[in-house]
Fold Alpha-methylacyl-CoA racemase.
Amino acid sequence: MSENKGLVVCRLTGYGQTGALAHEAGHDINYVSITGLLPTISGHNTSRPWPPANLLADFAGGGLTAAFGIVAALLKREKNGGHGCIIDCSMSDGVSYLGSFVRRYQDMEHLWTRPFAAFSGDCPVYRAYKTKDGKWMAVGALEPKFSVSLFRRQNACVTPILELDEAVRFKHNVERKCFIKEGDEFFPQPAPRMYALEEYERLMSKL
C-alpha cells in the first residue's frame, strides 16, 4: 500500500487479525461456537447443538461481510481523496453481528427457552413436520393471522392458550365484551348474562 495509496485489501479469516485465536485453525462450527449463537439456532438448550452446515460463518459471516466491507471501502475511497484501507474481516465477528437480534432479545423466554417457544424448535406453528411420503415440510405460521387460519372453519376444537393480557384483546372476547375496562385495568364481565326474550331475540337477529 506504500506504493499504491488507493489499494483496498480485505483479509478474511475465521477469528480476525487480533485476539487469542487469531492464528488458530478452525471451521464454520468453531467460528459460530464462540459467538454464543450455536445453542440458539439448535432448539432448546437441552438438545445437542447442531451446526448449520457451513452457511452461517463461511458464507454469511465471512464472504457476504467481506463483500460488503470491500464495497464500503471503495465508496470511502471515493470520498476521502483516493485512500484505500485494510479490512479485517473475521467470520466470527460477522456471525456475531448477524445475531444482533438474538442477543438483543435473549431474555424474552417466549422466544427461546419456554416450552414451545417461538424459536425453540418445538413450537407447533414454527417447526418442521415429517410427511406421509417420508419427506419434510416447514410450517412458519408464527403470527396469529396465519396460525389461526390453519384451523379456521375446521371446527377442530383448536384455540390459542392466552396470557391474561392477551385475553382482553382476543377477538371473541372483545366482540362478546367479556371484559370491562375501568381506568387502566380490565375486569371480567359478570356471568351469567340474563336477557328478556325480546332483547335476546334482537341480539340473535344480528348474528
Observations:
- The beta strands are 8-13, 85-90, 126-130, 136-140, 179-182, 185-188.
- The radius of gyration is 27 Å.
